[in-house]
Amino acid sequence: MPHSWGDGFLSGQRALVIAPHSDDETYGCAGTIARIKALGGEVFVLLGSLGGVDHYGPAGHGEKMRPVSAQTRLREFAAVMELLKVDDWEVMFPQEEMHLALDTVPRKDLVAIIERESRLSVENIQPTMLLIPAMSYNQDHEALFRACMTATRPGLRGERHFVPLVLSYDNTSLFWTPGHEQFHPNLFIDVSDFLDIKLDALRIHASQVRGHLFHGSPEGLELQCRLRGREISAEAAEGFVTHRAAF
Question: What is 7-245's CATH number?
């Protein structure tokens, strides 16, 4: 492990973020993305799927579900990518029918996309840092987590790109998981100077924003970041689980 996870280390990172859905990148690591970019590093985002969803909540006319279109989510996601100044982004499955259905894709196909077949694959980007979703009750998160672990499996140097730093990022919903899958961060990145950008990014995902008591609201996200910060005596932080750190 490096002696310091400060600016000098982060400025040299070439990070690839794998996000199951638009907004997962914001919940998990928008502060880290913003900090790396501010320091001169590179960040790329590979989005799993993008489609319309129906949210619980008043939609008018007495209806209990509120529809959100794929076009709305794509527009919001593109605006967040611009806010965070990422170097490039790509959607693995833009087809509506693939949204919330990544668990129906054979793992070998997901692995091929992440490992070498997409424009922003591990082989094409050759990242120094891979940020992946943690295990979750959501089937897309679980499918991508397992595919990312396979795509970054150990191999002989020189035969395929070896990612030295593989981390799972946090999500405000991870309290609702089976006990053996609970998220226990063992690496923290101080995002005190970038908390406002992270919260602005979530607000840009306006179609996903809910009331302040909802765990995934801007208020809930701020509380989580400040709690993570207190774990390292900082104003705000993002927590990660380290799967590999090889330097």
Answer: 3.40.50.10320
Phi/psi-derived region of residue 37, left when phi > 0, alpha when psi is between -120 and 50, beta in every other case: alpha
8 Å CB contact between 14 and 125? yes
Q: Please state, as a whole number, how many other Cβ atoms lie within 10 Å of the Cβ of residue 187.
A: 17
One-letter identity of residue 179 = G
Q: What is the mean pLDDT of residues 102-118?
A: 98
Q: How far apart are CA 20 and CA 91, in angstroms?
A: 10
Each residue's pLDDT tens digit, 38-60: 999 999 999 999 988 888 876 65
**Residues 58-91: pLDDT tens digits?**
665 666 788 899 999 999 999 999 999 999 999 9
φ, ψ of residue 230 in degrees (nearest 5): -65, -25
For residues 129 and 205, give the distance between their C-alpha atoms in angstroms, rounded to a whole number.
25
Helix, strand, or coil (residue 242): strand
- What burial letters (b/e) apply to 106-128, b meaning 16+ CB within 10 Å? eeeebbbbbbeebebbbeebebb
What b/e string do you get for 21-40 counting C-beta neighbours within 10 Å, with b at 16 or more? Answer: bbbbbbbbbbbbbbbbbeee
The candidate with the shortest Cα–Cα distance to 85, out of 207, 194, 216, is 194
Is pLDDT of 126 > 90? Answer: yes
